[in-house]
Amino acid sequence: MGVYEQLVRTLVGFIRVVETSLSRDIVEALKSVATLEEGMAKEIALAMLRNIETAERLNIPVCQDTGIPMFFVELGLKSPFAGNIGSALVVAVETATREIPLRPNAVNPFTNANSGNNIGRFVPWISYDVVGDSEVIDVWLYVAGGGSSYAGEARVLNPVGWEKQLIDFVVSKATRYGVNACPPLLVGIGIGPTVEIAAMLSKKALLRTVGTRHEDRRVAELEEEIKHRLNSLGLGPQGLRGRVFVLDVFIEYAYRHPATYAVAVSFGCWVHRKGLLRLYPDLSYEIPTHGIGRRSL
Amino acid sequence: MSRAYRVRSPIATSLDYLEVGDVVYLSGIVVTARDQVHRKIVLENTQPPIDLKNLALWHAGPIMVKRGNEWVAVSIGSTTSTRMEPVEADFIAKTGVRMVIGKGFMGDRTAEACRKHGCVVAMFPGGLGALGAGAVRKVLAVYWLEELGMPEAMWVLEVENLGPLIVTIDTRGRNLKNDIDRALAPSNALR
Question: Residue A104: closest CA among chain B residues belongs to which residue?
């Protein structure tokens, strides 16, 4: 196997891990939901755990909506793969769609035609952050499903009184559309000078580990407050009433413009498929989100 | 506490014994239809390729693979039913389906159609694609695959003990969503 082919195979394996199993923090969080809930909510949480176990055992996608793959690449420019990781990711998505298989989800917005292979204009979505002096490439994969993506929104708030506006915005979005986004949910909130910066940060916030708070104490307190507000609604798993409507709330921010307070909210469903692949120059890799230690193909 | 029932499709008898909150395990014939099939049948008045009378409908977009001459369900679960709310009442009236399976809740128009036509709406919780595939015994047919693509095509399935399906609208038109909204109203003023 040539080096490029080996790179593609490594990426296909990574996509398979993310689509057929959940990260350790999410599995632990769902186990605690099963402990906390009673009655119907508990039954649903137990069905979720059975579903995860079945998918892992049979090596099949945890959810039939295998989403639109979004890659967030932290690109070490000294990596030997810095030049071709992008094309390798596209080939890997096409291969994974055929082999796992994944559901073809890439649809032309004007003709409704499904490309059949999850490849289309700007799909898979790949964004890069350059890490100049590193030999390592970190590839984050987030699988954006339809139900959770449907509930997302970005808008610009008035800087005066932003905090109440932000909480009202998130709570009303979550109560109106959250039930359809497959709760218990992950909630990502982005703040910044413009809507697209806020939106991108809200998605990146969803990659955080459940239970970890923002390093800035004020941000951490707001995360806790919104989480408490959303869980005290009593909506619970799938909106059938219960204690846990959200598994966690994460905020990420950029400095804003004096005149604007742009915010965005992105939701993740309970089948929260995220993963980190750390790729070393010798093509060894690890997937720490899923407890997979350093190894080679 | 909710009660559990086994239901067989085609549904030959009345479903009046089911109440919201009851749990159903379904065996027999289930047909998938989501946005585009609803558009064709309701908005464009296209004749369904098979008679849907007394069958169960599932808002679902599966992953299927073809092994030899047979399609096999790899993963299948519910999609958001709310998207179909504007057209579901007409779909029920036109086709005579007796059970609508999906995720989330449906609204007043669908509830009224259920009351009129002896239909129920039931939730197969979202995200249970691996469990859903385990309930599929056989893929009997597929229609409109070329035109609509895999998720949107109409798949005809034989299932065994598909569930848990939680009844959210019963044949009296009672909607579990309204019960929950009322119960949570004081703590949920923004809704």
Answer: B150
Pick from B153, B37, B59, B162: which is nearest to B105 by CA?
B59
Is B117 among the catalytic positions?
no
DSSP letter assigned to residue A194: S
The interface pTM score, or ipTM, of the predicted complex is 0.91
Quick one: which of A64, A38, A34, A66 has its CA closest to A50? A34
> Which residues in B lie closer than 8 A to residue A46 (C-beta atoms)?
none
Strand partners, B19: none
| Cα(A89)–Cα(A110) distance, integer angstroms | 26
- Give the nearest partner residue to A63 out of B21, B80, B127, using CB atoms: B127
Which is the catalytic residue, given B34, B38, B103, B177?
B38
Q: Which of B2, B62, B79 sits opposite A146 (nearest CB)?
A: B79
The DSSP H or E segment spanning A283 is: none
pTM of the model: 0.94
Q: Report CA torsion sign: A82, A61, B76, A187.
A: negative
Contact B133 A107 (CB under 8 A): no
CA angle A134/A140/A142 to nearest 5° reads 165
pLDDT tens per residue across span A69-123? 999 999 999 999 999 999 999 999 999 999 999 999 999 999 999 999 999 999 9
Per-residue pLDDT band at A144 (split at 50, 70, 90)? very high
Residue pair B34/B79 in contact by the 8 Å Cβ criterion: yes
Residue B65 near residue B136, CB atoms below 8 Å: no
Whether residues A47 and B125 touch (CB distance < 8 A) is answered with yes
pLDDT tens column, A200-249: 999 999 999 999 999 999 999 999 999 999 999 999 999 999 999 999 99
Which among A36, A189, A101, A41 has a CA at the least distance from the CA of B67? A101
DSSP type of residue B105: -
Which residue type does B27 have?
S
Q: Do B129 and A65 touch (CB under 8 A)?
A: yes
Question: Measured between beta carbons, which residues in chain B are less than 8 angstroms from residue A231?
Answer: none
Cβ atoms within 10 Å, residue A227? 17
